[in-house]
Amino acid sequence: MYYKRNFAVPNIFGGILENVVNSNYNQLNDELKTSSVPVNIQETDKTYELHVIAPGLKKEDFKLGIEKNILNISFEQKEENKEQAGKWIRSEYQMKSFKRSFTLNEKIEASGIAAKYADGVLIVSLPKKEVAEPAAQEIPVN
Questions:
Q1: Is 139 inside any structural domain?
Q2: How far is CA 29 from the centre of its chain?
Q3: Pairing of strands 39-43, 47-53
Q4: How far, in Å, are 20, 31, 78, 112, 115 from residue 65 at the CA level?
Q5: Range of the domain at 117
Q6: Among 15, 64, 91, 129, which residue carries the largest CB count within 10 Å?
Q7: Residue 73's closest CA among 56, 54, 94, 93?
Q8: Are 16 and 107 in contact (CB under 8 A)?
């Protein structure tokens, strides 16, 4: 059975993250070929961080790119025909291709996005744009 996942940012965030990072998900026909990976979003003072849970991969396996304000994170499983000694009785562990896309808004400094992969988690750092606070001023009453 195939189904489309429908994720929403919990109300406890008050829509803050919905305005910063809007997540787009795969179409049903793409889900037949790929799977979705869990992503946590964390806000720090200077960045938003996407934590993509993807154990068993190498940093070279990931493909990240931005096109028209959409950040794409993907991994494509390549078909491999390896000669294996022994016979598998049961095989539940399977690496599947995945693609996650996130729409970036004007609060993100796209040129400063960085990524690192360690301990099965890909962390994509989205730096916040510096917002200049308006200078204090006195307004005369005429």
A1: no
A2: 20
A3: antiparallel
A4: 18, 20, 20, 12, 11
A5: 11-78+97-127
A6: 64
A7: 54
A8: no
Number of folded domains in the chain? 1
Angle made by CA atoms 50, 54, 56, in degrees to the nearest 5: 145
Q: Which residue in 56, 60, 9, 7 sits closest to 36, CA to CA? A: 7
**pLDDT surpassing 90 at residue 11:** no
Give φ, ψ of 30 to 5 degrees: -70, -30
Whichever domain contains 32, its CATH number is 2.60.40.790
Q: How many CA atoms lie within 13 A of 35 on its CB side?
A: 10
Kindly report, residue by residue over 86-121, the tens digit of the pLDDT. 787 776 666 678 899 999 988 899 999 999 999 999
